[in-house]
Amino acid sequence: LGPKSRSKGARMATVEEMWDVTGCKPGAVPPFGSVFCIPPSSPVVRDDGSDGGGGGGGSDGSSRRMVHTFVDRSLQRQGGVINFNCGLRTRSIQMAFGDYLDVEKPELCDFIVEDS
């Protein structure tokens, strides 16, 4: 995550940090970072006040930090749909991958190296 997030100290969130930001347990967080705001006092935010993910302040001019969404490009090659949990581990949504990209506008990355 480091190079993609523009932060040397990038890491996965702890269970507590995930709950504080999303109100979801691991495995239930939907892939829509844009709907979540990082609390200013969160340890997810670096000492300089940024989240390291390239997200700006809130659209209302506030200092709220949005969660930046990264998606591996390999998901595009796995078919035309994406399946994800919607805040609960017991409920899932299936969505056309193109629609997901249009709605969320995630940063596409290459995290997975596939065998040729």
Account of the 3D structure:
With 116 residues, the chain is α+β, with helices and mostly antiparallel strands. The chain has helices spanning 2-5, 15-22, 97-104; strands at 37-38, 65-66, 70-72, 81-85, 92-96, 107-109. The strands form three sheets. The chain has a two-stranded antiparallel sheet. The protein has a two-stranded parallel ribbon with strand order 3-6. It has a two-stranded antiparallel sheet with strand order 4-5. Strand 4 (81-85) and strand 5 (92-96) form a beta hairpin.
Provide tags for this entry.
116 residues; alpha+beta; two-stranded antiparallel ribbon; two-stranded parallel ribbon; globular
Give the arrangement of secondary structure elements.
Layout lengths: L1 H4 L9 H8 L14 E2 L26 E2 L3 E3 L8 E5 L6 E5 H8 L2 E3 L7
Parallel strand pairs: 3-6
Antiparallel strand pairs: 1-2, 4-5
Short description:
It contains three helices and six strands, in the order ααβββββαβ. It is of the alpha+beta class and 116 residues long. It is globular.
Question: If strands are numbered along the chain, what order do they take across the biggest sheet?
Answer: 1-2
| Rg estimate, integer Å | 15 Å
Helix proportion: 10-25%
Largest pleated sheet: 2 strands, antiparallel
* Structural class computed from helices and strand pairing: alpha+beta
Strand coverage percent? 15-25%
State the shape.
globular
Distance between the termini: 23 Å
The number of helical runs is 3
Overall strand count: 6
